[in-house]
Amino acid sequence: MAVTLADVARRSGTSTAVVSYVMNNGPRPVAPATRERVLAAAAELGYRPNRIARALRAGTTGVVGLVLADASNPYFAALARSVERALERRDTLMMTGNAGYLPGRQQHMVERFLAAQVDGLIVVSADGGADVAAQAVAAGVPSAYVHHRPVPGQAPLVSADNDVAVRAAVEHLRGHGHRRIAFLSGPHDAGPVAERRDAWQRAASSSGPEPLLLRCDYSREAAARLTAELIAGGTMPRALIAATDEQAIGVLAAASAAGLPIPGRLALMSCDGTPDSAYTAPALSVMEQPLDAMAEQAVALLLDRAPASASLPAAHLVARRSCGCDA
Amino acid sequence: MAVTLADVARRSGTSTAVVSYVMNNGPRPVAPATRERVLAAAAELGYRPNRIARALRAGTTGVVGLVLADASNPYFAALARSVERALERRDTLMMTGNAGYLPGRQQHMVERFLAAQVDGLIVVSADGGADVAAQAVAAGVPSAYVHHRPVPGQAPLVSADNDVAVRAAVEHLRGHGHRRIAFLSGPHDAGPVAERRDAWQRAASSSGPEPLLLRCDYSREAAARLTAELIAGGTMPRALIAATDEQAIGVLAAASAAGLPIPGRLALMSCDGTPDSAYTAPALSVMEQPLDAMAEQAVALLLDRAPASASLPAAHLVARRSCGCDA
DNA sequence: TCCTCTCATCTAAACGATTAGAACTGCCAC
DNA sequence: GTGGCAGTTCTAATCGTTTAGATGAGAGGA
């Protein structure tokens, strides 16, 4: 059915080698007249090189595996798009898999991607998993964690500096007159969320009363539930930094349902800066992660075997309505 | 570096054929003792079959390509996850690509996936593109459109019946006492949005005054802009059905910014039913699309070469706050 | 004329898995 | 003892590309 190199060779009266040389501007030159004939034959037959055969011969597939905790989460979805763009510049395709926050499924996806001979593996991990990238290392496949590494392991981690940005967020809320600034963290935070929590802890307790640390799952639902309880119990803080946009959106939903005005009675900020955050009601003030830069660095790490440069821009503050700004 | 069949054969003192038979419970039987030896050798060496080699030989890769208009759109993201689940049941991997609503890029992605020898192609298309699946048909690769087909073409379309559901939505708003029910459509609607618009047109004009048809891009931003204008001009309808959740969320954002209470001054519904819609403020009432069923049918069409059964459930109504319900 | 050198092209061996066909072992019946 | 048969296992071709080594044609120098 499919047109092969041999077909083109026959049609143009040459050999498969010449056709290959033409197709790749091969390692050897081809006479101009011959090149024309080959190109014409390929066009007529509608030849499309078989990447599988090439992959077998070359030992490289031009495919990278991306394991996500959850592609429905706008933060991860945005990250995935950034990765796709970075890969496209290198003419590389992307396989994706959702681990659904389950370490077992994450392991399973990695296993399948390795069997598919991916050239590299990017893991945007869920909390609490094992060092899945260890399998990749064992298989000789370069790998990198982005955003979060569950345990210190052999694969590099690409993550922006959260300290600067969270400090800026705390200062910004102080600028709106808030003394007690609470933080909504994950259930048992680690990785970037822990960094953010630490940065907040240092910045928020540097002056003024002891700040409040809240915890809930990384979901809109959990944050909404927690918020509803706090409002009902009369213990809702007046200023809050949520670790993730998803949580912040949950807070927003519950506050709206309970009639708690934002930013009037609650100044809210969060730490991802997904596209969604610009279209909540009110619009979320966020510290926006440099997703494109993170993706580019991860891909460079895998494909160009570049050293992990530490020169990643920090997340930067985008002030909208929810913190008390007018914009 | 990698362990091959030949390595396992050498280690276990057999031939590659026997090892292959063992690995696949091959087309021929193997003596129990030999099977043990092979299995042991494979385990010791950490053998992992090379899917690329298998693919070249078998002519089938176990990979399906999914071309999305925009994976950051929660509706498409949810659809992608449904497709992934359907594929997983058939032990098939998924390559994804974003076309970014650009017909040219869509074409390009299809081209690249075909070069990668995908076993099938699912296109969740943007408006206005050519019949990209025609390339797949030409290459002998089964393909299917999901949700939307830009032009009538050779590939089947999987899409749920919108008529029943939109009619239900109109009835539901009538139940809340609304006589004039407006509809927010796309810029030049086609496919499912056109079906929804038609269903609304029929249902809404069946009794009462002529209903209002609005149009804007399928983005939060565009819907927000339009809404702001309508509110400023005093022409905002009291009841509105948005074609997509994204648009509805934009309406919500602008209404909130302008202080227009929902559902008090505007009863709002929309037509996707993404996970996001449950966590807006107020929560969106939606007609929820049967994404799992759509994905399953598309995958069955490609991989099981099942006939396109018309037995797809229609989108069904989920009533939340934004329409005026208490829930 | 013969040798060398360059340029263009062809031949054929990989890559790793699958699987027909051949080959070898015992075993049983005649 | 020979033929046949079943049960195992081996050999080798195949999928489509890539690319090193062999081949051949023509130009130029001696």
UniProtKB/TrEMBL annotation, chains A, B:
Domain spans labelled HTH lacI-type: 3-58
Pfam families: LacI, Peripla_BP_3
GO molecular function, one term: DNA-binding transcription factor activity
PROSITE patterns: HTH_LACI_2
Entry keywords, A to Z: DNA-binding, Transcription, Transcription regulation
Name of the protein: Substrate-binding domain-containing protein
